[in-house]
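Reading is simple: the token line describes the chain's fold. The lines below illustrate.

. . .
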Amino acid sequence: MKKIVLCAFALTVFSAANAQESVSYKPTTGTVTTEVGLIGGLNNANFNLNGGALKFRYFLKEDLGLRLGLAVNNEKNEGDGTDTYSDFNSPISVSGTKTTVVNTNTLKIGVEKHFAGSNRLSTYGGADLMVGFGKNNSEVVAENGNYLKREGNSSSFGVALFTGADYYIAEKVFLGVEAGLNFLSSKVKDKDVSGKFGNNEESDTVNGSKNSKFETNVFGGIRIGYQF
């Protein structure tokens, strides 16, 4: 949050310093922009989409833009571990190589209304529709062939209201910040569990769940982008 506040302050200072400029760097009708949400701030920036966000915008008018965003978070970990499942007819506990895979992908489609600002600073507000898909799998495999595997999927749907600002540090290149409010409904689907211990093989299904949450959230933090 501190980095976001500092970035917003920098945008304001730069805007005041360049208030007398007569040339506008901001998008016009038909402009297409793309941007990446930075991880780690400007001093330790990471452009990898693993946990970041990619966004495209198309400006129908100078003050009205459509946007398409994609947030990707894919993680895979492998190491020694143990897993136990006690709801089989014969409970299974397996120790060996444990692999976990967690994927969370979110698609956002929205609209932005831009305000007057200055020749370099463009402030805006808008709304997004959000659709998400996720996967959470784990498997422990022993040297003797015993295993315990869990496979589950999730989905989400929601809307977001946001406000933000872009500051053009050069022609067609900008830094930005964005923050907003989410309403998100998520569903964890039934999880399949299977295992083998000796000659005993079992399978089961764990019921999923559904929940909604209303929260204030900061999207992307510091962003960097450019016009085509």
About this structure: The chain has one helix and ten strands. Confidence is low (pLDDT under 50) at residues 41-51. Residues 2-17 form the longest helix (16 residues).
